[in-house]
Amino acid sequence: MGPGPSEIHPAVYRALASPVIGHLDPAYLEVVDRMAELLRPLFGTKNRLTNATPGTGTSGMEACVANLVGPGDAVLCCIHGYFGDRIRQMCERQEAEVTCIEEEWGKPTDPDKVEAALKQKRFKVITVVHAETSTGVQQPMDDIARLARQHGAMILLDTVTSLGGVEVKVDEWGIDAAYSCSQKCIGCPPGLSPVTFSERALEALKSRTTPVRSWYLDIQLLDGYWGAHGYHHTSSSTLNYGLFEALLLAHEEGIEQRFARHLKNHHAFEAGIEAMGMAMHVAAEHRLPLLNTVRIPEGVDDAALRQYLLKSFNLEIGGGLGALKGLVWRVGLMGHSSSPEKILLLLSALSVALAAQGVKTDLAEGQSAAMKVLQ
Amino acid sequence: MGPGPSEIHPAVYRALASPVIGHLDPAYLEVVDRMAELLRPLFGTKNRLTNATPGTGTSGMEACVANLVGPGDAVLCCIHGYFGDRIRQMCERQEAEVTCIEEEWGKPTDPDKVEAALKQKRFKVITVVHAETSTGVQQPMDDIARLARQHGAMILLDTVTSLGGVEVKVDEWGIDAAYSCSQKCIGCPPGLSPVTFSERALEALKSRTTPVRSWYLDIQLLDGYWGAHGYHHTSSSTLNYGLFEALLLAHEEGIEQRFARHLKNHHAFEAGIEAMGMAMHVAAEHRLPLLNTVRIPEGVDDAALRQYLLKSFNLEIGGGLGALKGLVWRVGLMGHSSSPEKILLLLSALSVALAAQGVKTDLAEGQSAAMKVLQ
To answer: Who among A92, A189, A310 is closest to B20 (CB)?
Structure first.
């Protein structure tokens, strides 16, 4: 129940043990094609170029940055957490001219600041994190999307923690490149990164004057495999069968129903935490249902508590990253892990672990508040 | 029985279905540590920085190139097949000054040509493919290694098809960066790339004046996870458990015994092919035991024959790549796929598939010649 990997459905485990077949086998290329069909509704896109890069979510981040951003390109990085800053680092490695808008960790980027920046300078790309895994903030996208359109800037969007858990609207927002990961709300093991690129992004790529530095993650070369079925890399049938099965399960549940389940379970969890006398880090209107940051009560030994949960209950929650280290816990309610029984278990385990450090919480109130939401 | 992925041992399939755990879980970090211990003997190295990059073999190639090669660096690329040329493309994307030594596809690089090049210019890095998957050639390394030492050049070595199947001597040859893959002689599914870097390579990295363009494959950042157990990427426990199990199986068999098995099965296969009246593409002294290029007999429809094998016998062999397209078949005898029963099956299936195209071969002679080697 940390920031991922989330729990894996038994059907996905079975898929992982399927016989390995060749990356150019006609039967496997069908899976490659269908992967795109299953991912598009989650991204909210009709983009032809939609599939999964052969690496973790960070490989998808690098694929988006390395393809869209070149030397001297003006890039506006919206940073309100650890991953927004990771994108900035990648842009700088591509020798872009980077301008940053930084927000306190726990708040989203203010569209007014984006507007002010866009009025001062012409930007090729704006980078945005839709769901900041380090803070538990969900970035409202409508205003930033409108501003980007008005000023002719492309948007590069991190949906690592949002894809499959809340609505992502790549086409409606006019996103040009977005990436995610396999191991959070989609519920597959880590190792793959769903990505999607707009036709405008592909056009921009074709007019680049410098080659994409990465051969492995050059999206036009990857398209030569995904789209044209030519050899580029030895795609892992193991991981792709797992992702395929996880996506089938998501569609079987129904995309809308899946979002509703994640939201309801989040409301139950936050109600429970607050009724127990603890506090959520993010203001209610910006909370990400999938990644919940809980403020660590004063006087609690963070590392000792997380070790206690792991040793006594085989239960993992995340510590704070960067600016929030030691200040919050990160609780994932993603994919197969987003369930009433997990919430009850965690509230209960937290009360025991806190009691072991002499910190009293009202578990009965917490359970009752959570159950009111769940029923 | 193509150029990989090879067959997977049942124990590895079981490992792939192991419960997914977090990349920073203490129990998992033990696996990360032990991965290095199990890989070092295969690479023939004591290099501390030894582990597996989170991507296919091409991610390992890119990790080696992007870290060792920067803008303006003089690089000597030894090219005698498809993958040597892929390294060249990557070096050029890093803005290196590339000089090429090209050989006919089916022959190794001539050390005299390397010596001539080294006398003309000072090179920072020489790139070499130990086992060229596109041609079935094993590159003799002693002379090139000696020349590189004499002229103070680093060697970047591709061991994608050799690691775990024939001896690799990273320390003895003085290799500074080498990479491989998980799905060939090691016998794990694709998705990971074993790599090793020398201390000299790390020193060179620290004196770079430009940042490594790739954040995902920056070996110093990866070392921060493998060595210092800090967060960098969400390592796939699924694939790493598979690789771990495959490496345990290799050590259980015995490294020397494993090399001997691969060599003996190769000799049986080539004896069978030649006794059936067909020809190997590579001269006997340069044949790679693991990847066997068989010349396609005149008048045979290549694609139709491979489709026949796949449809009738669920048997995959590889077609020729690049300059050898339509001229050779590529037969992998790697890892769990390198066995007497596979050899007999393939000789038999080939004779049937050729007969279906009206080409007669002497299967009885082929079987008898193969069995003489195997007994």
So the answer is: A189
What ranges do the domains of chain B cover? 10-252, 254-374
Closest C-alpha to A240, from A2, A27, A49, A7: A27
Q: Is B22 exposed, middle or buried (0-12, 13-18, 19+ CB in 10 A)?
A: buried
Q: Measured on CA atoms in the order A147, A150, A156, A158, is the torsion positive or negative?
A: positive
Say if CB B83 and CB B134 are below 8 A apart: yes
- 3-state helix, strand, coil split of chain B in percent (to 5) is 45, 15, 40
Per-residue tokens: B338: 């390198």
ipTM: 0.96
pTM for the structure as a whole: 0.97
Residue pairs between chains A and B whose CB atoms are closer than 8 Å = 165
- Fold observed for domain A10-252: Aspartate Aminotransferase; domain 2 (3.40.640)
pLDDT digits over A284-330, tens only?
A: 999 999 999 999 999 999 999 999 999 999 999 999 999 999 999 99
Which residues in chain B are contacts of A55 at CB distance < 8 A? 54-55, 59, 216, 233
CB contact under 8 A, A93 and B213: yes
Q: What is the pLDDT of residues B287-312, one digit of tens each?
A: 999 999 999 999 999 999 999 999 99
Beta-strand relationship, B154-158 and B177-179 = parallel
A313 in contact with chain B, both atoms CB, cutoff 8 A: no
User: Among residues B315, B317, B273, B314, which one has the least CA distance to residue B297?
Assistant: B273
Instruction: For residue A238, list chain B residues with Cβ-Cβ distance below 8 A.
Output: 16, 189-191, 238-239, 242
Q: What is the CATH number of domain A255-374?
A: 3.90.1150.10
